[in-house]
Amino acid sequence: MHEDLLKRQQQPLLIVISGPSGVGKDTVVRRMKERGLPFHFVVTATTRPQRDGEVDGLDYIFVSREQFAEMIERDELLEYAIVYDDYKGIPKAQVRRALASGQDVLMRLDVQGAETIRKICPDALLIFLSTRTEEELIRRLERRQTEAPEDLKLRIATARKELRRVDLFDYYVVNAEGELDHTVDTIMAIIQAEHHRVSPRQVRL
Amino acid sequence: MHEDLLKRQQQPLLIVISGPSGVGKDTVVRRMKERGLPFHFVVTATTRPQRDGEVDGLDYIFVSREQFAEMIERDELLEYAIVYDDYKGIPKAQVRRALASGQDVLMRLDVQGAETIRKICPDALLIFLSTRTEEELIRRLERRQTEAPEDLKLRIATARKELRRVDLFDYYVVNAEGELDHTVDTIMAIIQAEHHRVSPRQVRL
Question: Would you tell me the crossing angle of helices A25-34 and A180-194 to the nearest 10 degrees?
Answer without folding.
Answer: 70
